[in-house]
Amino acid sequence: MAILDRFRTVPRHKHPDPAVRLAYVEELPIDDREQLAALARADDDPRVRRAAVAKLLDPPALASVAREDRDEAVRDQAIAMLRDMALEAFEGVTEAESLAAVAALTDVKTLTAIARSATNEAVARRALSRVIDERALGSIARHATLESVRRAALDRVADREEIVAVAMNSDFKDTAVAALERLSIRADLEHVAARAKNKSSAKRARTILREQDERAAAEAAADAAASVPPAPETLEPPPAVASSESRPPAESAASDAVAEADAIAAHERLEEAARERARIEEERTREEERAREAAAEEQAAQRRARLTELLAEAGAAAAEPDLGAARRRVQAAQREWSEISARISVDAEAAAPLAEADAKVAARERAVHDQNERQRREALARLQQLANRVEAVTAKPEGTLKAADHALRDLRAALADVPPLPSKKDYEEITRRLKAGMTALTAKVQELRDADDWRRFGNVAVQEQLCAKMEALRALEDPEEIARRVRELQQQWRLAADVPRAQADTLWRRFKTAHDEVWARCEAHFAAQAEARAANLARKIALCERAEALADATNWIQTAEEIKKLQAEWKTIGPVTRGQEKSVWERFRTPCDRFFTRRQQDLAQRKTMWAENLARKDALCARAEAIAESTDWEAAAAEIKRLQAEWKTIGPVKKTRSEAIWQRFRGACDRFFMRYAQRHDIAKAERVAAREAICAELEALAESAESGPADLAPRVAELRRRWQQELAARGVDRERAVALDERFRSALQAVLSRHPAAFANTDLDPEANRRRMEAIVKRIEDLAAALAPAAAAVGVDGAVSPTARLATMLKEALAANTIGGKVDEESRWRAAQEDVRHAQASWSRIGPVPDAVRRELAARFERACATIARAGATAKPGGAGRAGGAGR
Asked: What Å distances lie between residue 199 and 193, 202, 282, 316, 471, CA to CA?
């Protein structure tokens, strides 16, 4: 990093100090959602992210933070913002944004709160649609603000206990009664009738129970009437028996017998009726016993159901926000549980949820107790701080009346309402300190008030001087000077404003009278100044309109120059009407910033494009430079042309790099095509260089030590093979080729003569090569001697003598008369010529021999070959005639 880079200004949102970034977030407007979202997602400090989230009104961004942020407080803040947006707690939040906020939430508790509290029906219903928990639906049905939402939530509740809870605890009559209508179990109705908070619900439950009882009583009466037999007829008493005295004895005896029989019959009938009544009574008793048993069983079932309800009530009571109410409800449930469990057999483990609810409430009570203790300690700490402050104010010799009055008010308020403290000792100690401080502070305040009164008397003289100075301004002529001095005197008057009330009004009227008189002289000046400022405002508004017209232009350079001219002109315009400075400046700066921001964005895009184009052109340069030294001429030329065509398809690069990259590419292409134009000379130079390298290596071997390297013979053989390959590749100037041939032979001869033993029995052995040459020469000379008669007839210059020609013609004539004679002679000459060709091929493959020997044997070999060639020419039909003709 350069030294000057350390002094560059760092953007505040990227400043390393979190406090600076936090201050930047607090200054950001709430509508800058993009910047707020970026800070909420990416800042390293959770405080900065939380502050950005607190101002962010973007549901998708808030949902992302709520899901992904690593800090729980930031996630909670994002959820709270989504909740507040859903509840339209911010100005400018649309219904669509509220619905989007609801869609972004997943927390059941938050969705439940929105469904309960939202006043917008669409938002509340959207939140309700995302809640599936039965308890949450019951809570919404009980407490939702909108009736339609309450009824919709109640329709979705399927749990009987929740329906009972809605009927008992709903704050709204319609919802409670609707929930009650869905209950059919008598125990539920009795529970609602006895304990419901909603009076309408309890009254309706009692009505339903009364109707059920009346209906049941009517049915029971009808059944009883149908089952009881009719009562037996009342027996008439027997007729009066006549007195025995009035009847005759015989009649009397007969009558007595009849009466006795009648009495016995009547008695039997009475006993039968009594037995029937006893039977009916016994049947009725058994029916009542069965009814009592059924009622007892039903009552036991209801009690067991009530125990289940008590467990649910205890669980709900444990979550009651009001701790006192929670404790009372849990204790009531425990008492009722004890009463019911004393009448029926209950498993001991069944009461575990009740004990758990009691434990939860106890834990909450302990937490509240701990919180109260903490609050008491905090209250004690606050009072101690107040006592310390009061004691410091009292002990300080200097001080202000305002601070002392403030401390005295705080002290009086604290003593008037002392909060609960950890102990009685703490209460007595802090009360003692506060009262002592109040005594001392009261005296201090009185002392400061006395001093303030003296200061007020001193301010009377100051105000008189200010009045005199204001009256002296009548002699000045310069309005600006008058205005400046008036402002100074006004400021000084404010500093000495406290004077005794008796003189305050008089001095103020004197000061104001002089002020109004001199200020009237400035009004004309200020009016002219206002007109000038208005004209300046009109000029600046015109500049604003011109800047706004240019803000969206894409002719960057020309527009930038025009805007710069507008900015320069802006600086030449004087001040505008007071109160308009900031607004008109913001209006002018906004289009300027928008244009230059767009220009920077476009420049950034073009820089990216330039960088991409530069990278592509750099790759083409590297490829062209790699091909520039190639010797595969046609393929390389085609590739260079392809690269040139591709270069034309690539867009521009940065101007400062354009010429350099073009010269680099062009130089590589020119270098190749220059070499391409000289490719034949280059090939010759390469071949010459290859032959010179072989000669140099062979000369180096010739100059080696006496023994030479161990692989001398193979190396020399390899160099000779390479030399022959180079000889096969033409393209070297004849003079240069002859000189190199001579150099190679000299070097080879030097190696062979210096190290003859290394080449024994090899193709490079001079002696063996000499013997092979001599054998070939001897074989060709013998062949030439065999053909000597025909050759001898030919002179040295090729002319054939007449005698020889005549002999030859006679011989040919004789041969023509012999079967196959001439054919055999031609075959023999052709075979001789084939032998010569084979000998010449073998001669060319023979390795090196000393130059003197080679020249001698070569001369003999050439003479013999020439002799055979002449003999062959003579042996052909008409050859002598042609030879003679040539000689002529």
From this structure: 9, 5, 46, 21, 80
Range with the poorest average pLDDT among 10-14, 402-406, 509-513:
10-14
Residue 42 has pLDDT above 70, yes or no: yes
What are residue 794's DSSP bridge partners? 800
One domain, residues 825 and 848: yes
pLDDT band at residue 825 under the 50/70/90 scheme: low
Q: Specify the pLDDT at position 763.
A: 65
Residue 91 lies inside a defined structural domain of this protein: yes
pLDDT at position 395 is 80
- The sign of the dihedral angle between the CA atoms of 64, 65, 67, 70 is positive
Task: Please check the confidence at residue 806 and state whether its pLDDT lies above 70.
Answer: no
Both 699 and 806 in one domain: the answer is no
Query: Is residue 881 over pLDDT 50?
Result: no
Q: Is there a contact between 185 and 176 (Cβ–Cβ < 8 Å)?
A: no
Residue 877 sits in the same domain as residue 842 = yes
Compute the C-alpha angle 779/785/788, nearest 5°: 150
In this structure, of 271-275, 612-616, 662-666, the range with the lowest mean pLDDT score is 271-275
Same-domain pairing of 772 and 746: no
Asked if residues 650 and 613 have their Cβ atoms less than 8 Å apart, the reply is yes
312, 346, 380 - which closes a domain: 346
Q: Are residues 735 and 852 in the same domain?
A: no
Taking the model in full, what pTM does it have? 0.30
User: Do both 775 and 711 map to the same domain?
Assistant: no
Evaluate whether 748 touches 848 at the Cβ level (below 8 Å). yes
* Domains identified in the chain, total number: 4
Range of the domain at 706: 678-764
Confidence (pLDDT) at 726: 66
Do 115 and 220 share a structural domain?
Answer: yes
> Are both 788 and 849 inside the same structural domain?
yes
Distance CA 794, CA 110 (A): 131
Handedness of CA 185, 188, 190, 196 (dihedral sign): negative
**Rounded Cα gap, residues 716 and 722, in angstroms:** 10
Q: Positive or negative CA dihedral for 848, 849, 851, 854?
A: negative
How far is 459 from 465, CA to CA, in rounded Å? 10
Domain finish residue from 706, 741, 764: 764
3-state helix, strand, coil in the chain (%, to 5): 80, 0, 20
Tokens of 774: 């001599």
Burial level of 862, CB count in 10 A (0-12/13-18/19+)? middle
